[in-house]
Amino acid sequence: MSADVRLAWIAILTVSIASACTCEPTEPTPTPEPPAPVAEPDEPAPEPAPEEAAPAPTPPFVSLRAGQGYTCALHREGRVLCWGTNGDGQADPRRPSMRAPPTWVEGLDDAVAIAAGMRTTCAARRSGRVACWGMNSDGQLGTSTRGERRGLAEVVGVTDAEDVLGWKGSLAMCARRRGGAIVCWGRAPSTVEGAGRAFDDLSVQPYFLDDVRSIARSGSEVCVQRTSGEVLCWTTSSLGPGSTTPTPMPELAGAVALYANDFTVFAAMPGGEVRGWTSTPSPPPALMPVGDDPHPVRPALQGAVAFAVFGWNEIFGLLTDGTVVWLDGDGARAAVAGGTDVAEIVGPDHLVALTRDGRILEWAPGAAGPSEEPSVLEIPPVEPAAAAAPTEAIPERCEVHARRAEVEHHATLESFRAGVEAEADATDAQITEALCSAAGVDPGSADCPAEGPWPGLLGFELVLVVPREAGGYDVLRRLGTESPGTESASELRGIELRARAPVAFAVEEEQSEQSCDGEGDDEICGLSMSAMSQRVVLERPDGTFVLVDVGLPLDEAFVRAQAAPTATLEGDGVRVVACGGSGLVPLED
User: Fold this and answer.
1) Structure confidence by residue, pLDDT tens digits, 458-515
2) Is residue 582 classed exposed, middle or buried when 0-12, 13-18 and 19+ CB atoms within 10 A define those classes?
3) Which of 2, 190, 464, 564 sits CB 3.0–4.6 Å from 476 for a disulfide?
């Protein structure tokens, strides 16, 4: 069909449709809105993604160790917190006192392991060196010397330690070196371990066994686990059954951990079994039968993976689910109040626990059984705010004087060789090491740096040797004396180098007089504290030195409570903070 024909038909249809319409005229129909798009069937809204649980915070503390009346905790960042008995500075080495509150050990922020002994504490550092503090009656600080000192001491010759070991009743401390070798210092731990060692030999020496993983010591038993898993045990006394010769204990081989109380060594075995060994003729019947060979302990302890053991017949166990249980005198087991979600427990004087979330719990000493709720240890700030300077004057009971120190100049150290018994061909470095050692200060430590200044003891007299850039040495005389065991005894209780240039040096000295009661053969004599002096040496801008002397009153409780004095140059005098007060002290002629 042509296009014209199509157009004609369209026109005809249009006219026809219009003629057939009978509707009344209406308003024009508005153009309808376009239909709304048909919504697709709603798909179910996606479930919101579950929020990832926030990771549990890393517990701040990683381990606990307990000595005689005190406890220490190792922080994951390398700091060490200690509290408890502190007469020898075993908890707070800068401030010995009857008892220390929770205190961060000053100068220690890189510890990887800690150990507590009778009254001595040690820490292995990231560098592999070992720092010790506290009692040093038998060389427990590892300096090869005896005598009290403030602050940290560095164990001589140990540079690759990965762990440290100590025991409540022992006057020796040990370190495990990389590879498993053990070295020890202090009084020989037992007749076997000390064989061939002179009583007065305080040097750091290898343990008589190598490749040691752990050591457990009771009052009379010792068990050592070697890196192979083998366990050797022996007694330290010939009394009762047992051998003083190390004897393999195949029944304890492969133990997960070894623990000890006063008379028994316990081994936590794989699978939850607990075995024990004692040489004591009459061990607590609730714990195990008598015998030389290991015996599984009573079912009340089965499943324990760690122990805290006390005295003769009291033991706490830590189960795999974090529950702490108590074994009573009849061998029955009971849950300890508050002892849940626990990661570690220690004794030996009262129960202390480290929870999995990093809290430290303490049960009161002598608490009756497991029913007492623990307290949560309050952790002090890591860096407490500096205390404001005292506004009160220094009390009259403390005598404070400031004077110019006596100084001698020496071109060389030749004159000191005889004083420190150095060899004729000793180098200056060897002489300065001997100076520090004689004063009870570790060569190479912070208080005896390789570049000086160096404290030293010449005869009974404490000196400070200061090297000068222009050459030679300034020697400060009469800073203190060390003459124990005499009728007028004098003992250096603490030496501390606070700054190298300009020099700031502090020393504490205790002087005693012999007093006697009675007459004749019944006469009783003893040394009593008669004076305590704290001294600070400062270097002036002109190169001269000022000696500040703080004399403390004859009040032992007061003396122990005092912080070390501080002194700063101010005008023509010295600003001294001591005895809880502050004052400007003029220089005496």
Assistant:
1) 888 899 999 988 888 999 988 988 887 667 778 887 888 888 878 888 888 877 766 5
2) middle
3) 464
